[in-house]
Description:
By secondary structure, the protein is α+β, with helices and mostly antiparallel strands. It is 56% helix and 16% strand. A six-stranded mixed beta barrel has the order 2-3-8-5-7-6. The radius of gyration is 32 Å and the shape is elongated.
Amino acid sequence: MLFLRLTLESFRFAWQALRSNILRTVLSLLGVTVGIFSIIGVYTMVDSLETNVKSGLSSIGSQSIYVDKFPWIMDGGDYPWWKYFMRPQPTYREFRNLKNTLSEADAIIIMAWNSALAKRKNNSYSSQVQGVTFEYDKINETPIEKGRYFLEQEVDAARPVAILGVDVAQTLFGDEDPINQRIKVKGENFTVIGVVQKKGKSLVTVGSNPDQRILIPFLKHKRMFSSGNLTGTIQIKAKDVDNGLDNLESEVRGRMRTLRGLRPLADDNFALNRPDALVGFMTAIFSSIRTGGFVIGLFALLIGGFGIANIMFVSVKERTNIIGIQKSLGAKNFFILFQFLFEAVFLCLLGGLIGLLLVYMASFIQLGDMDIVLTTSNMIFGLVISSIIGVVAGLIPAVQAANMDPVIAIRAK
């Protein structure tokens, strides 16, 4: 009860002191507000980017390895850049061999992309046409909203069937049911067998926005776009979801080196790309950005802390006579100390809350397809930092006020 009474009494004194000079209070709040806005704003942006990246992993197969010509993250060593361009593309023959021999693989596909105009009657849509093999839906999320997925016979026989992204289907068909309807892609007729649920674009996307794609059998795609040149990107999903990626990577590397006849000391002429490595690389960048934002915001907070300390010294000087009266009436030193310390913390918390409010308002700004979310943990972190700045800034003025001699304080003018 005593603590509650002291808190309420201190809150009343602090509120009266802040209201007595609104302009001075506002100017003192600015430093803390800017500091909290800088720190929590950067943290919120980075956290939103990380969330978007991690959610995008499911769309590209988080437990999979991509066999490709180029690495996603270029080696910073002395490997000549032109050697990457001299590498051969993974082939359909290599895909078939890996499919028949890998023991650590749960599913394996080969895929390729090309842009083309899809037409139906007077409607057209410039889309990315993606050729895939049968197990594509086992590795990459492909929830069918209407119709069905490919049959294995359709893929192996290169049948003219297509699965549309939701944007493609809406543009070409509107409110009409597209299933079993025909579209033209690069002058060839395709029967629509399915429409994929709306997914939206992600920062981590292999190819284009899934809603804007047309999926067709891989062999059909290569006949249309590459004159039978059966090359593409091979994607392999690990059988063991916990620690199977390392085993799968070793097995794939050994098998690919054998297929390409590489000598023991020769460099790989292919790249094994892992989404988790890409995310680890991006997370390191995000961590650096977060640290930089904290340092920049900390300078603003320190300036705000100096402003709070200054206003507290002024407040102690203005209320010296009142402090002497309180002490003569029996107020303990800890009550005076708590009163001024509470005022400093309250002032910093108020500035921090305004900074958080600005971050929350900024989170409604739309940045492409990324959702910006102010998390509870960032809000708590902002309030904790504000409280610490308040304690540090108000401690010396509060101690000065608590240690005043009541006789001298009452005589002060």
